[in-house]
Design brief:
CATH architecture of the largest domain: Up-down Bundle
Strand order of the largest sheet: 1-2
Helix content: 55-70%
Order of helices and strands: HHHHHHHHHHHHHHEEH
Low-confidence stretches: 1-11, 384-392
Number of helices: 15
CATH superfamily of the largest domain: Rhomboid-like
Number of strands: 2
Amino acid sequence: MPRLQPIPPAAGEEHQLHHWLHALAPATWVTYGLIALNVVVWALMVSQGANPFSPPAEVLLHWGGNAASEVQRGQVWRLLSAPFLHSGIVHLVMNMLGLWAIGQTAERIYGHRVYVGIYLGSALAGSALSLHFSAQQTVSVGASGAVFGLAGVVLVAVLRHRDSMPRLFGKPMLRGIGFFLVYSLAQGFLQTGVDNAAHVGGLLAGALMACILPVRPDPLRSRAHARGRELLALAAMVALLGGLVLLAPPAAVDFQRKYTGAAAFEQGMRSFNAAMRQLGLESQWRRAGKLTVQQADERSRSVHAPAFRKAQTDLAAAWLPPGDPRNALLQAVRQQAAWMAEMQAMESVTPPGSSQPEPADPARMAELQALIQRSAQRFAPPPVPQPAPPRR
């Protein structure tokens, strides 16, 4: 524990505060380490192709953004990874300025080891409360929950221990932190795209931990007492986090389904169109005499039926949000792929005295052809109107 040297009576209050804080921890290396870690994660995202100013939600989710649907699938680690991600360089810079301004004071008051716990606990609480609000429908990221937690822990520490802290830590400190909290929360409620639930969750967690944890140096408390308070704070945070996660309502948006379903739709459409193009190409070959009727009949089962079954599989995994105008097309193409797979897989027979193979079930083949034709006509582009011929 650092020893505080007496300050000459003539020393000013600002010098007294500066001396008091630096005697507690001359180097706030944890705060600088956290800032560096946040910057490194952002730089890694950018190096992998993420937009440095506004990475899409799908990219943030891939890197570990917080989403209720994914946490409820068991990916609880997102509660901790999301606070180290940011939705652009402006978001990153603003949070790191807040961390630098408030974090150093919190680190000096509580010490390096306890400070790490406060930071992580606040970050987790912010992510956990977000499961009830923003993370229900968006991918939530950012260190602001942790920063609000540090503001809360310093605010409560000043209120609880103002008699043992330099006088300058009183009203000016309270006014500064109070203004930051009120202004930031108000902005969060007035602007869209701000996860105020994470702010409130971090703030409450920081305040709760400050109510339990002792500040340092505290010569009236033993080391054993301090360890006991730290364990109590840990237990309180575990209970808080567990309750917030377990009581979160079912996710309003399934992000995994949303992003993988859209990708599966694109893949399914590519597979179906590729199968149709190959079928059309072989039809041209047959008319040109490059492919015999028997060869074409054999390839319908060995090549084309598997191609349409693959398209069926890809399209079965596709999902589009309700109200997406492509949903009707998806349902139609799914059905067409099933009909085409059945039609191409149908066995053929060659009547006596003929060399032309025929479907084993002509009635079903005719039915399939009619179904496919009607479905294709529904989604055919309208004819382009031709200009009227000029009058002579």
